[in-house]
Amino acid sequence: MAIRSRKKIGIIFNFSGSWLGGVYYIQNIIKALNYLDDDQKPQIVIFHNNELSKFAKEIEYPYLELVSWDFINVYKGYIYSWIFRKNIFVKDLLHKYKLDGIYPLYDQPISISNTDTIIATWFPDLQHKFYPKYFNKINLFFREMRLKLMLKNSNVLVVSSNDVANHFKQFYKIPTTLKIHVLPFVSIIDNFSFNNAKELNVKYSLPKEYYIVSNQFYEHKNHIVVFKAISLLKKNNFKVHVVLTGKMEDYRNPIYIDRLKSEIKENGIEDCISLLGIIPRQDQLCLLKNSKAVIQPSFFEGWSTVIEDAKSLHVSVIASNIAVHKEQLEGKGFYFNPDDELDLAQLLQSFTKDNIPVIYENYESRVKKFAINFISVFDKSKGLN
Q1: Other C-beta atoms within 10 Å of 332: how many?
Q2: Could you read off the pLDDT of 330-375 as tens digits, one per residue?
Q3: b/e 89-128 (16+ beta carbons within 10 angstroms → b)
Q4: Domain 8-183+366-376 sits in which CATH superfamily?
Q5: Is the peptide bond before 104 cis (omega within 30 degrees of 0)?
Q6: pTM above 0.90, yes or no
């Protein structure tokens, strides 16, 4: 019998293509593996739905297999799994492809037995425990049910920060059979050109100097504090300009966008704000690279994608002083109270880009460390937490 020298890891790529954070997360994992020595590189099989086919094809990796998979509807999957007492979502997939590990498997209504495959799940954060007002009762019920089944039936729970790991230990009884693995992701920024800053400023009608906020427009992302800070500064004859990118929609709170627009209009700060919505990734990164600083005002994060982008591009970050931001920036951030627009306004007024040396860890070292950490999720010799 031939001995397979490379680990064979399956990646579940099955969610809405509008969730760009999820798309970048999966792409970055596989791109990071390119930084490993050849004998360290695992074989990767991406199981993707039709909507994500184009994103899967963008990934370049020497040991990559793309498989279009007809994933079952979530509700049917749970019902059929309970009826037939097997995990309908992946049982056939695991049997056919003989995987060493699969990730991230969100739906585990039934334990997957009689397999050597490591079942690894990922959950971004426990926002619903801290801000239940952002979820309706049905969403809360199904989120809790899904979480408890994941904890019960997984081998490994992957989280992006120690902050989130501590939250899980705070709110749930962790089974002794489950390992919690902290995997802080890193933004992979390769093959991008940043020489068209002037053209982009013209394209989007931007001033030469600006700050940038790149978040989806969810209420907990706290755009409102930025607008209030800008308003305070303008009243004191100190003008700043802030560019905002991201999907301008919050399905859980549809009126939130109208509230933000009213805040802009009522305070007369239209000339200080550029709402760009969703723009090409190349444009967004170039705008970020050439910004005065990134502002990350969020009340809650599992691990901030835009902060990782900033670290990879060596751009300063002005962030809310929540624990996960301090963990992520390791003392190299500039912090403000997310409930205090005056605190942010004072920071913006005194911020001078030219006098601030930003020194993050070497990019290639960060990426390689991330790749090694990802592979270790599937190390069967590791003990349980």
Answers
A1: 16
A2: 889 999 999 999 999 999 999 987 656 667 888 899 999 999 999 9
A3: bbeebbeebebbbbbbbbbbbbebeeeebbbbbbbbbbbb
A4: Glycogen Phosphorylase B; (3.40.50.2000)
A5: yes
A6: no
